[in-house]
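agent> call fold_tool(seq_1)
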Amino acid sequence: MDRAQQLGKEKIGTLLLKFSIPAIVGMLVQALYNVVDRIFVGHGVGALGIAGITVIFPVQL
């Protein structure tokens, strides 16, 4: 089925789940990356490194 036909004929709830799951998985992976990054920087550099990550985080997005 063509994607345009899907958007016109399927239920909104089904479409919402179908198209939002990849975005949710991507956001979870990004959050996990940030947690692991802060752990490594915290152990290696310390508080100043975590402060640097906090300042740069909005630029990364």
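agent> call fold_tool(seq_2)
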Amino acid sequence: NCPFSNVGCTTRATVNEINKHLEIESFQHQTFLMGEIVQLRTENNNLKHSLESTNQSLHEELQLVKGINKDLLKIVEKLQKQLTENE
């Protein structure tokens, strides 16, 4: 198999033929590599956007939890005060 088979080349050649194939098809191999680079960049950008979105959601949820914790602390303090007053 051609060393560029993992990026799209389907040529099968013997060891003796592969060097000639690599010389003749260098432009095609570069085209395969460019296609792979474009695909990887697109995937990378999509992953970045997904990560940013997840990060934003987590930040919003964290703020909500912090607010709930503050409210709960106020309730606990109020209950402790009531218990102290009732003793």
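agent> summarizing second result for user.
The chain has one domain: 5-86. The two ends are 86 Å apart (CA to CA).
agent> awaiting next instruction.
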